[in-house]
Write the structure tokens for this entry.
Amino acid sequence: MPEGYGGFNTENYGMYHTPQDTPNMGVHGITVEQLIDIIQQDLTYSGLFPKILPDKDIKRVIREIALPWFYRNYQFAVQKSYFYIGRENMTNDLYTRFKYFILPIEIENVIRLIRIDNPSLFRLGIQAPHLSINLGVTNQPFLTSFVTTAGDLGVYRSILSAFSDEINKLSRPSLKFNFNHNNKRLQILTDVTTDLMIEAWVRIEPDAIFDNELFKQYMIGYSRMRMADALLRFNFNMPGGFNYNAAEIKSSGKELYDSVLEKIKGETKNGWFLMSR
């Protein structure tokens, strides 16, 4: 892992972003220059009209407005990943003085903070197959098929599963924490005596988002509105004496922009739910 990954010294903090350990050779996407060219082709009708909106302004909107909004609101702009914090990092100067870690800039949100103190999967609340009908505690001599039916065994197994879930809630390995999205500070709100694992949503590569159809439509709609604002604010003497219909340009841009927002906000985010079983 290279030092200083994501603005975060991984060597000093003992954190390793496992999906990034090897170079990503299969990322599909386009560069920001290619995206700007696509936007300008739309604004100028493939060169039919002169360029009004400068490339520098489009690039600023992409970096400062569009990308942050997509990372916060578009479910496919982030991907679940895991980070490891070794117990020895709780003794460094930053943590002992301020009781927080500064996470990589790529982390958009933290889902869970989990203690690593038991190699068994049952520590994470997995209850299979030891509580099945034919295995484990339900396979008792007084509950054989000579005495009871398969239906009774199923009811008995369901009761045990529900009881086990309640026991797991009392022994969950997750810890209380507070994560600030702006400064990327992760503050642990309890004592720590073991290694930790962070479950988090991590931003995907910008090039992959640039090639997303919704992101292109978002930027085209936003750029049309920016171009219309410039035309309404200043008087442009265009070659040939023609004038832009700024009101129509802004109306079409806002319609495209609003349609993208509606599509994204209307998507079902099933991947964001945490299931207890």
User: Anything to note?
Assistant: The first strand starts at residue 78 and ends at 85.
